[in-house]
């Protein structure tokens, strides 16, 4: 029942949704001749007409940058970037911050992490060295996770055939993660990190190239094993099922092995672990992650796929 061979198909179509974590939601070529995996993070099939050659590329808009925070220019120096990130951290820690300010701060944080992950090691270390200690607690983890996922993804010439929807409220999701921890024993932060990597906490709706469904990306056959009669598309049922899968494969004692059974990639395991530990170390990390948008790595650059996509157009926020 727990035969590792069931994960072989994942190797070819591995991490489109997972790589979304950093502006790397990409489509790997599916291997249609291998057996299905227990869960599957391969990307939903991309559109054959949107974003192809000759399609006009939308330009960035001012709404992509938090109010009061400057655009993260490629020419920004390390001290400036560090100050911006510290301001983001202050906003996320502030219990009196408005919902709009928190959202914009988190969106800026996500784009800054993308920038740090793609800049030189020297620049990255200078920025991190300038950060307030509490800010660096999760920024270091975010950047490491982004680089891990970036390494196993590639830009695509077309935009994906997904629907992007609003996620369930942060408080409600946190309740589901904690319920799964109480009932099944899997640390809540790992479930939140998987949810973040797989579908950006439920924003992505679409069937993967391997046939996976729902917010935690289960194959129907795997769902039969761990779904306990629930709804594969229901966030609570899916989170509990993910906890059962992890528990059946070593969690909480060996989280690395459990995560490897969820997705047979060392980079995936390490990236999820980085985000989980960030949430364990810093109370503001989850508050920020819940606001992270779907970023897609196109050959022309990084796009935001906003809520309402494809009806609401994708927005180019960074060049290739």
Gist?
This protein is mainly alpha-helical. About 45% of the residues lie in helices and about 5% in strands.
Features:
320 residues, mainly alpha, two-stranded antiparallel sheet, 11 helices, globular, disordered N terminus
Describe the protein's architecture and organization:
Strand 3 (294-298) and strand 4 form a beta hairpin. The chain is mainly alpha-helical. The protein contains eleven helices and five strands, in the order ααααβααβαααααβββ.
Fold blueprint:
Blueprint: H1 78-93, H2 99-118, H3 121-130, H4 133-150, E1 163-164, H5 170-184, H6 188-199, E2 204-205, H7 220-226, H8 235-248, H9 255-262, H10 266-281, H11 283-289, E3 294-298, E4 301-305, E5 315-319
Antiparallel strand pairs: 1-2, 3-4, 4-5
Helix pairs in contact: 1-2, 1-3, 2-4, 4-10, 5-6, 5-8, 6-10, 8-9, 9-10, 10-11
Question: What share of the residues lie within helices?
Answer: 40-55%
* Overall pLDDT level: 81
Tally of DSSP helical segments: 11
Structural class assignment: mainly alpha
Radius of gyration: 18 Å
In the predicted model, the low-confidence regions spanning at least 5 consecutive residues are 1-19, 21-70
Written as H for each helix and E for each strand, in order along the chain, the element string is: HHHHEHHEHHHHHEEE
Tell me the overall shape.
Answer: globular
Main beta sheet: 3 strands, antiparallel
Task: State which percent range the strand residues make up.
Answer: 5-15%
Q: Can you list the strand order of the major beta sheet? A: 3-4-5
